[in-house]
C-alpha cells in the first residue's frame, strides 16, 4: 500500500473545499451534484467523499448547502 493512500485531508476544486475528517459518509452531496464531481471512498474501515472530477465543478454550492457537518465549504 502506498504511504498516505488513505490519509484524510483537505482537497478542493476551484469553488469548494473538502475536509474529509468532517465527512460522515451520508452521501447526500453525491445526490445533488449533477456534474458528478463527487465520488466516494466506501471501505468498511474508511468512508468519506472525495472529488473525482474537480474541473467539472461549476460552483453551484448545492453540495455546501446540503452538507450538515461542514465537510464541504466555500473556497475562500
Q: What topology emerges from the helices and strands here?
A:
Elements: E1 10-12, E2 16-19, H1 28-32, E3 38-43, E4 46-51, H2 62-66, E5 72-74
Briefly characterize the structure.
With 76 residues, the protein is α+β, with helices and mostly antiparallel strands.
What's the level 1 CATH class?
Alpha Beta
Tally of individual helices: 2
Coarse morphology: globular
Strand order within the widest beta sheet:
1-2-5
CATH architecture: 2-Layer Sandwich
Count of strand segments: 5
One letter per element, helices H and strands E, the order comes to EEHEEHE
Strand content: 25-35%
How is the quaternary structure best described? single chain
**Helix content bin:** 10-25%
Count of separate structural domains: 1
CATH fold-level label = Alpha-Beta Plaits
Span between termini: 34 Å
Structural class designation: alpha+beta
Major sheet size, sense and barrel closure? 3 strands, antiparallel
Radius of gyration: 12 Å
Describe the protein.
With 76 residues, this protein is of the alpha+beta class. Helices cover 13% and strands 29% of the residues. The chain has a 3-stranded antiparallel sheet, with no helix packed on it. The mean pLDDT is 90.
List keywords for this structure.
2 helices, two-stranded antiparallel ribbon, 29% strand, 76 residues, alpha+beta, Alpha-Beta Plaits, 3-stranded antiparallel sheet, 13% helix
Amino acid at each position: 500500500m502506498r504511504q498516505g493512500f488513505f490519509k484524510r485531508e483537505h482537497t478542493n476544486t476551484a469553488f469548494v473545499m473538502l475536509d474529509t475528517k468532517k465527512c460522515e459518509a451520508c452521501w447526500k452531496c453525491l445526490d445533488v451534484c449533477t456534474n458528478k464531481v463527487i465520488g466516494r471512498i466506501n471501505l468498511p474501515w474508511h468512508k468519506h467523499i472525495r472529488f473525482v472530477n474537480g474541473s467539472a465543478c461549476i460552483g453551484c454550492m448545492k453540495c455546501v448547502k446540503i452538507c450538515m457537518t461542514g465537510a464541504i465549504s466555500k473556497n475562500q
